[in-house]
Structures are given as C-alpha cells and as structure tokens.
Amino acid sequence: MSAVVVQGVSKVFNQGRPNQVDALVDIDLTVEPAEFVSLIGPSGCGKSTLLRLIADLIAPTTGSVTVNGKDAHRARVDQEYGMAFQQAGLFDWRNVAKNIELPLELKGWDKQRRAERAREMLELVKLGEFADHRPWQLSGGMQQRVAIARALAAHPPLLLMDEPFGALDEMTREHMQAELLRICAETGTSVVFVTHSIPEAVYLSHRVVVMSPRPGRITDIVTVDLGEGRDDDTREDSEFFKKITEVREALRAHQPGRSDRIGQAVEDR
Amino acid sequence: MFFVAALLLAAALWELYKQFGPDAGGGVLGWTILPRANDTAMPHVWEMFSHYTEPDRRGSDREVWQVVLSGAWYSFRLALLGFVLGVTVGLALAVLMARFRVVERGLLPYLVASQTVPLIALAPLVVSWGGRVQVGDWVWPRWLSASVIGAFLGFFPVAVGALRGLKSPPAASMELMDSYAATFRQSLFKLRFPAAVPFIVPALKLAATASVVGVVVAEISTGLRGGIGRLIIEYARQATSEPAKVYTAVFGAAALGLVMAGLVALLDFVLMRNRPKEHVGEALA
C-alpha cells in the first residue's frame, strides 16, 4: 500500500473573487513506503500547499488524497503522519521529553507508556541526556531534532516536513540531513520533504519532484540513484553532481523571466 | 529597599513643600494651582502616624490601628472575591471571543464601553438590583454588591489580556495541533492557555488593584459599613478637628492594594518560573 496517493488534485484559493489564485493544477503523485520524496520549486509553486493538502490542513478543490490507504481526513485523525516545520515550534512551558509526549497525550496514552516512548525517541535522535532541558536551552539543530522526535513519537508511517532545516547554518544542516536519513532508515518512515535547496533535495531523496508556479504544477520528477547508506562522501560523488545539474536544469526550464518568456512579455505589451 | 527609600522620599517632599509652600495656596500666572500648605490641608506626616495609637472614638477601647486593620481585612475579603469573580468572567469571555470571531467583534466594543460607565453611578444601581435578588432562602447580601463592582472593574484587563494571549501562538503551532486533529478544548489547554500566561499575568496585576479600587469606591458610594472605604468617609468627616486622621484609613487602603498586588506577584513567580526571560518582555511590548 502506498504511503501517499495524490490523484487529480487542484487547489484554487479565493475562488470566484478577483484575487483568485490557482495554487495547484492537476497534481498526481504517489509516495511508496519508506520512500523519500522532495518537493522543490520557486516560491509560489505550491509545494507547501501540496504538503498541507496531504496533511489535510487544507482541503483540495478537486481530486483526492489518501495517506496509508485512508482518506486524508481519517489519516489526520488517526495520526498517520507526523509533521515538522521550519520553526521547531517546541512549547517553552514543557521540557524536551514532555514536548515529545504531546501527540501521545492527545491520543490518550497513559503516563508510563508516554514516558517510555519519549525516552526511546530521545535515544533515536541522540538527545538522551537532554530530556529535562527546556527547549530554549537547546541549539537550533537540537531543537529541530526534538521536533523530529515529536513528529515520529506515535510511530507514524509518514513524515511531512516543510523546510525543516531552512533556518539552520550550513554545517548543522548537512549533519541534520545525515541524521534524518539514518532515522528514516531505522524507522522505515516515508517522507515528503519541502525544500528550496537543490543539494539538500538530491542528497536526501529517492525522487525529486520539480514544481513551477502560476499555476502550481509538477513539471518534472528526477529519480536519484545514490543508493542507501548515503554519507558525507556521497556529497562528492559525481552522480550527486550530475543529479544536482539535472534538477537545476529542470527548474530553469520553467523559470519565469527567462529569455523566451521575456520576449513573450514584450510581445504582450 | 527601594520601596522604603521611595516612601521616605515622598514623606520628605511632603514636609518640604509644607515648610516652604504658601499657607493659603497660591497661583502661577493667575491660575490657583499651588495647594495650601496649612495644617488642615497638609498635616505633618508624623501627625498622620500618631493617630494610629489613639482611641478610635472618645471612650472607645479600640485604637485606630485596630479599626483600620479590621476595616482593611473586611475590604480585602470583598476585593479578593471580586478579583476571583472578575478573573473568572474575564477568562471565560476571552475563551468565548477566541473561539468565535463573531463574538469578539460583537462583544469587544461593549466591553470597552462598560469601562467608561462612571463607577459612582453604577454602584447604587448594583445594590438596588442585588436587593431584588432572592433565591429560595438565600438573600443577596449588601456586601456582595461591593464585590461585584470590584469584579466589574477587574474583568476587563483580564478579558483583553487573555484574548491577546490566547491568540498569540504562532501559525505553525496552531497547524501542529491541527495536524494532530486536536479538539478546541485540547488546543486550548495544551497550547493556547500556556501560551497566554505571559499575557494574563500582567492583566492579573491590573485586575487585582482594580478590584480593590472597585470595592473601596463601592463601599463609599453605597455606605456599606465595616470596610476601609466607609472608614475613609467617617474619618474625613472629622477632618475639621483632626485633619490627619483620614490619612490612617487612606494608607490602609493603599496597603490593601499592595497586598493584593503582592499576591499576584507571587502567582507571577510560580507561573513564570520555567519560562525564558525574553517572553516577559514580549508580553509587555
């Protein structure tokens, strides 16, 4: 059973009003179990919108979304996915362990089971000794690791991430990418990952979904065969650079403001 | 320490003006604005305090400090009840407004308007309404009206502060709760209320002092016996013979407000002990 199936989905904001926006048009996308898929594209291409449609935080105008075989709403209620954002968004009034327990509390788990799972998740993200710390005492990278632990606390089969490493410095970012791959390999979690960074998308993904704006649509899907067990050496692999070039060219092909488009704009005038 | 120093400074300034100010008052550029510095208008600070150890009335075996203290205690209980009532109503309104936007838009202007009603006009009204309330054997006691008026002043800062606090969580946190399919009640208690604490605590400070003001003014304007407000009126009537005496009751009322504020400060300490320091500034900004 596929982790995510998006079929014929489109999303129109402010329908029928002068400020109507076709955020997404004709989206078809399938994510297999344990697959890592990145969504990449310029601002306004609807990649975050697509992520929120999968998460059932907004409803599609047309088409259907299923997560783990359930319709998106059911999947959200059953916590079939975990979510992480650019801001770790930890609650200041809870210590690290209690932050991780939040989704379990909402599911009604008892205290002991929650504490056990929080410990397990802290080990997974290698923050075992920070259980009693307060979020603001941690570095940005550590906070983001807690956010990932929280997202995975209920052992969902799917992880949705919206530029989770966007606010981190380059070194921390690369370290977090390696950590994320390790965590996903250990837990068998599928990931849909929104990013602005081409190397990040290529390094992490089995497939990179390239999107373009106005209206938001999928223009290309680049398959990355870097194998499992990617490490720092992968970043110097010639295949890695080849794929980066491929994604970049796929992005450029539809970039607004290119010479052919400028010519068109001049003609329109 | 600074508090004591400030108190001494205020007393010193008072005496300094009394020494050099014009006894019959004075004017600047034709306006009479300088207060009179004679003994009736501005008694010596030590005279104010000497009254504390005198008998309340001639032949009374209770000294003034005992009367002021028992009056302050009486008013304190009324103010505390008013504070609790006000905070409860304020929080309930804030939750309602945070839940339903339509309630916020409909209600908030009326809440603002409610605070512009002159308290002096309102107090007798509340008393007369209260006088008609009777549920079975239970009759509305007169003192309850004073508490209600205290609550009437106290609920407003709590409602406004809590509303802002309940709406303070960033969009990502709200989306996070949505992604867990959290109910309104769950996100209220696990996210919105904890996030609102830095906004509610300063509002509680305002509510605490407001409830004291409400109760004291209500006592004065409804003639309720036993409290510090009534005592101020009684002692003020004796101002011609003993001009310094009324200050004993005024200081009692001030101390009452300080005790209430102190209780809230304690609450502040307990609620905010595990928070990052920046958040206090954020809430005040």
Question: How would you summarize this macromolecular structure in one to three sentences?
Answer:
The complex is a heterodimer of chains A (about 270) and B (about 280). Chain A has about 270 residues and is α/β, with parallel strands linked by helices.
Can you put this structure into words, describing what you see?
The complex is a heterodimer of chains A (269) and B (285). In chain A, 38% of the residues lie in helices and 23% in strands. The relative contact order of chain A is 0.16. Chain A is of the alpha/beta class and 269 residues long. In chain A, a hairpin with a 4-residue loop joins strand 9 (207-212) and strand 10. Chain A is built from 9 helices and 10 strands. Chain B is mostly helical. Helices cover 72% and strands 4% of the residues of chain B. In chain B, strand 1 and strand 2 form a beta hairpin. In chain B, helix 5 packs across helix 6 (142-166), helix 6 packs antiparallel against helix 8 (184-222) and helix 9 packs antiparallel against helix 10 (245-272). The longest helix of chain B has 39 residues, at 184-222. The two termini of chain B are 27 Å apart. Mean pLDDT of chain B is 83; it is low at 279-285. Chain A binds chain B through residues 52, 55, 57, 76-77, 79, 81-83, 85-87, 89, 91-93, 102-103, 105-106, 134, 136, 160, and chain B through 170, 172-173, 175-176, 178-182, 186, 190-191, 194-195, 197, 274-276, 279.
Please outline the helices and strands.
The complex is a heterodimer of chains A (269) and B (285).
Chain A: E1 4-13, E2 21-31, E3 36-40, H1 47-54, E4 62-67, E5 70-71, H2 72-77, E6 81-84, H3 96-107, H4 111-124, H5 140-152, E7 158-162, H6 170-187, E8 190-195, H7 198-204, E9 207-212, E10 217-223, H8 238-252, H9 259-268
Parallel strand pairs in A: 3-8, 3-9, 6-7, 7-8
Antiparallel strand pairs in A: 1-2, 1-4, 4-5, 9-10
Helix pairs in contact in A: 3-4, 3-5, 4-5, 7-8
Chain B: H1 2-20, E1 26-28, E2 31-34, H2 45-50, H3 64-99, H4 101-114, H5 119-131, E3 134-135, E4 138-139, H6 142-166, H7 171-179, H8 184-222, H9 228-237, H10 245-272, H11 278-284
Antiparallel strand pairs in B: 1-2, 3-4
Helix pairs in contact in B: 3-4, 3-6, 3-8, 3-9, 3-10, 5-6, 5-8, 6-8, 8-9, 8-10, 9-10
